[in-house]
Each structure stands twice: as structure tokens, then as C-alpha cells.
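From the methods appendix. Each design record in this collection lists the discretized structure first, followed by the designed amino acid sequence. Records were kept in a plain field format so they could be parsed without special tools. The example shown here is representative of the layout used throughout.

RECORD:
C-ALPHA CELLS (262 positions):
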């Protein structure tokens, strides 16, 4: 046990560095991942700004309500592409060489997810900057922003883990993209990302209770409120953390299935 932790740490650091260097050598990809959430925020913010006039809507500013939701939507959508990097490694033979080496399987997974989490962090800051420029204001202070950043990164890591697991199991980019869309779209619309639960259909509210993306949106909005319900923040953040750890463990075990099928 004494060598496992240092090995995991050093392997994670090495893999993280590898993916960060590859990621930031592609400025066009970086620009796309930064511009996309801006388009979502401004588009949805204009299309649905009238929903605040519906009786029962809890916020007087739709852009303020929407901004944390778009943060989580962006983290979800971006993380769905995480597994494409694993598929590229498989096609080039890099994955087989990695798995034949002494590198920790946990480090191999964690390093890639940490590098993706840096993109989520940048996107979160950008979405908030655009939302505030458009008029969104929050009274939750620094704690609210930190909670929002934290839960958005958990969304990115959790669903990035699922994407990686699907990549290892299917080894096909087409299958990964199809499954990613099949999962991300229902999770987006069966949540409070764009609509207040008080004015949504009852069945959507029931489904949202089991939706990790909704847990993140609720935790963020509560933390950003003038009078945060910290018990709700802790409860939903705890559920999200448990989900992230579980799917992270599952995705690491997917390496065994991949090796047996090669």
C-alpha cells in the first residue's frame, strides 16, 4: 500500500500533463468549447426570457436563473466527448501500450478526467462572465461561485467517466456519439436547467429527483442565492459526489473488459 498511492499520484500527474499538452495545442478546439456555451446562454436567454411571467416562477430574472443551468449543461455536453480521446488512442495503438506498461489504471483514467476538468473550469468562468454582462446578479458571494464551480466539475468528471467507459466497451466513435446524445439530451430537458420545477410538468419533477445534472443545478442556485439553503446544497452535492465516485470506479474497471476483448 505504501507504493500504491505514490504510484497513482505520479501516474495521474504524468497522464494529466500529457492530455493538457495535447488539449492546448489545438486552439480551434479550445475556441469551440468556449464559444458554444456563450451561444447557448444568449440564445436560450432570449428565447425563453418571458417564462418569468408565468405564475409561480421563482426568479424575476431569467438570465440569472438560466446561467447556473447552462454551466451544468455545458459540463454535461462537453464531457460526453471525453471518450473520443480514448478511441483515438486505441486506433493509434497507444492505449494497448499504456495498458501493457506499469501505469496505474486509476491514474490513466484520473489524469484524462482532470485535464478535461480544466476545460469545464474555463467554461464555467466564461458562462458566468457572459451571464453577468447580460444582467445576471447573485448575492451568494464567493462561496456560491465556488460551489457552482465545484459541482460543475463533478458533472464533467462523472459523465466524462461514463463516456470513457462507453469508449472502452464499444471502441467505436459512432457508438459513443450516439449513446452520448441519447443520455445527455433527456438529462438536460428532464431537469431544472432551463425551467423552474414549480412550473414544469409533474413527471419532469419526479424524473429530476434522480437526475445528477439537476442535483448540480439545484446546489448551484441555492449556493448563489441571497439566503442559501446550505442543507440542500450539501445534500445535492453529496449525491453528486457519490454518483461521480461510483461511475469513476466503474469506468476504471472497464479497462479489464477492454483488455479481455482485444
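DESIGN:
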Amino acid at each position: 500500500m505504501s507504493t500504491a498511492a505514490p504510484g497513482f499520484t505520479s501516474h495521474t500527474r504524468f497522464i494529466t500533463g500529457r492530455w493538457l499538452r495535447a488539449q492546448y495545442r489545438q486552439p480551434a478546439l479550445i475556441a469551440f468549447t468556449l464559444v458554444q456555451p456563450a451561444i447557448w446562454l444568449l440564445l436560450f436567454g432570449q428565447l425563453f426570457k418571458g417564462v418569468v411571467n408565468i405564475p409561480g416562477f421563482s426568479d424575476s430574472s431569467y438570465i440569472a436563473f438560466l446561467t447556473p443551468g447552462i454551466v451544468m449543461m455545458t459540463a454535461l455536453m462537453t464531457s460526453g466527448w471525453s471518450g473520443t480521446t480514448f478511441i483515438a488512442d486505441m486506433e493509434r495503438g497507444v492505449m494497448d501500450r499504456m495498458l501493457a506498461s506499469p501505469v496505474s489504471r486509476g491514474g490513466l483514467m484520473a489524469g484524462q478526467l482532470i485535464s478535461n476538468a480544466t476545460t469545464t473550469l474555463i467554461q464555467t468562468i466564461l458562462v458566468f462572465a457572459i451571464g453577468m454582462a447580460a444582467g445576471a446578479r447573485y448575492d451568494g458571494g464567493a462561496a456560491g461561485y465556488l460551489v457552482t464551480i465545484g459541482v460543475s466539475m463533478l458533472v464533467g468528471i462523472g459523465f466524462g467517466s461514463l463516456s470513457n467507459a462507453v469508449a472502452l466497451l464499444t471502441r467505436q466513435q459512432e457508438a459513443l456519439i450516439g449513446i452520448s446524445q441519447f443520455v445527455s439530451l433527456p438529462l438536460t430537458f428532464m431537469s431544472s436547467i432551463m425551467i423552474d420545477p414549480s412550473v414544469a410538468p409533474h413527471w419532469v419533477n419526479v424524473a429530476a429527483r434522480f437526475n445528477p445534472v439537476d442535483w448540480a443545478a439545484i446546489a448551484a442556485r441555492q449556493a448563489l442565492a441571497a439566503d442559501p439553503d446550505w442543507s440542500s446544497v450539501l445534500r445535492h452535492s453529496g449525491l453528486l459526489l457519490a454518483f461521480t465516485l461510483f461511475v469513476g470506479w466503474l469506468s476504471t474497471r472497464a479497462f479489464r473488459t477492454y483488455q479481455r476483448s482485444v
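APPENDIX NOTE: The mean pLDDT is 88.
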